[in-house]
Design brief:
The chain is mainly alpha-helical and 284 residues long. The chain has helices spanning 74-91, 95-114, 118-133, 142-156, 163-170, 174-187, 197-208, 212-227, 236-250, 257-264, 268-281, and strands at 2-4, 9-11, 18-20.
């Protein structure tokens, strides 16, 4: 295939068959220096669901100068200020726009607190938009529905974030978060994957500073437990914490059950119970 940048066509060099007539331009918008080419090849931000207007709206610049660079007159400056005010108000004229703007401001804060990836943020914004479209936010707090959307997005991409992590980050009660999460799953007919104890293992190990050798052995224990169906119906965090504790004991890594329980967000009793089950069933 040959691409002609002048005519904007892509065609076969053997038979001349034109595949595309108007290809997308990937070059620079204007003639720039070689040093600036890497940074300014294209202009404009990409569209995103995590922005209330998806990044499609435009704003009137604050430079009080015309196209030739000359300063505007006092009357023109006054008119431009009025236009900026009405332009800003027109973007927030609907209640749904104001709702989305506030919600996605909170989502941006959650992204930093929970170190969420871009895929999780986009998924959470998509779920919140669907909830708003079906009027599920009415009568409920914006923070509660947004937190439920974030937790559902984390579950969907298998990112180890617990209910306690999300509720503390957005400062709502865990009970309210679970209630809103169940509502989202039922009303939007979501099919959430079961959280794997393997994904929780690295999170706990990083918090206690475990070595790679300890992590690998704990991973082997979890895989053997999964093969024997020991993890069925058990809390993934509790299983991961118990496997990590067994691995720490075997490799003489100095850490207590209390430290692992705090890192995993479970009780020491849970670790001891899962520890006894795995030690007996896996003949450790």
């Amino acid at each position: 295939m040959i691409t002609d940048g002048v005519t904007g066509e892509r065609f076969c060099h053997n038979c001349g068959l034109v595949i595309e007539e108007q290809i997308q331009e990937t070059g620079p918008e204007r003639n720039i220096s070689k040093e600036e080419r890497d940074d300014k090849t294209r202009v404009g931000m990409p569209t995103s669901l995590a922005i209330h207007d998806m990044g499609l709206a435009t704003t009137i610049g604050v430079m009080d100068r015309d196209a030739t660079g000359k300063p505007l007159s006092a009357h023109a400056k006054h008119e431009m200020r009025r236009l900026r005010t009405w332009d800003s108000r027109s973007q927030m004229s609907e209640q749904s726009d104001r709702n989305l703007r506030y919600a996605f401001t909170q989502l941006d804060k959650l992204k930093d607190k929970l170190t969420l990836s871009g895929a999780v943020v986009e998924k959470a914004a998509y779920l919140y938009r669907k909830a708003l479209l079906k009027s599920l936010v009415r009568g409920r707090s914006i923070e509660g529905v947004l937190a439920a959307s974030v937790y559902a997005a984390c579950r969907d991409v298998e990112m180890p974030r617990t209910l306690d992590d999300v509720s503390k980050a957005i400062n709502i009660k865990r009970k309210d978060l679970t209630k809103n999460y169940r509502m989202l799953v039922n009303e939007l007919e979501l099919k959430m994957p079961v959280m794997s104890s393997v994904t929780c293992l690295s999170k706990i190990a990083n918090k206690i500073g475990a070595s790679e050798k300890v992590k690998r052995h704990a991973l082997e224990i979890l895989k053997n437990a999964n093969d024997q169906r020991l993890t069925a119906g058990k809390d993934p965090m509790g299983m991961a914490a118990s496997a990590l504790y067994i691995s720490c004991v075997k490799h003489d890594f100095d850490v207590s059950q209390k430290d692992i329980a705090l890192a995993a967000g479970v009780t020491e009793v849970t670790i001891r119970n899962r520890y006894k089950d795995m030690r007996k069933s896996l003949h450790l």
